[in-house]
Amino acid sequence: MAYVLGVTGGIATGKTTVVDMLAELGARTLSADRLAREVLSKETPAYHEVVRRFGEAILGPDGEIDRRALASIVFKDPKSRQALEAITHAPIIRRMQDEIDDFRARHASDRAVLVVEIPLLFECGLEKMVDQVLVVSAEQQTQANRLTTRNATSTEEAGRGIASQMPIEQKVGRADRVIANDGDLPSLERAVNDTWKEILLL
Question: Which domains does the chain have, with CATH numbers?
């Protein structure tokens, strides 16, 4: 029987790393970010709406939307973020539901695990789309340190990005499973391995 695990958390808590580790253990994976890139690819309806709303300054040399330029706008302005979400969320969710439905249909009679990375799972009310929710958490200072290192952003920009999301404590409180990712990589690998073993016993 198919099992679908939704993975969420805060910005820079290590969601993608956890999903990649689960993939190495045998899970199929699906990423909301990948679907977002497809939805916003050149010449799609959402692409044209976003360019109309935010202007051609968000475009790269190839005419595609520069996701970092767009992120710098929506991190600073809640109204801009809401406008972007109003354009993109519905088509992303439709594609995600289609892929999950297809997975369930293909694996109705055999054991298979699909891990879906959804940063805004709770914010979009998508809990019912998956069988269980795993939250990858980290202390706010850990998040800020990772953001400034990974994205070469200022501490102030990192703080704005973290503050723009639902507090991680709220996500942890609503999760079926939690992996705390404040330690080193071997510690995270052990936690992911333990979670995988538990999933296989369901």
Answer: 2-38+90-200 (3.40.50.300)
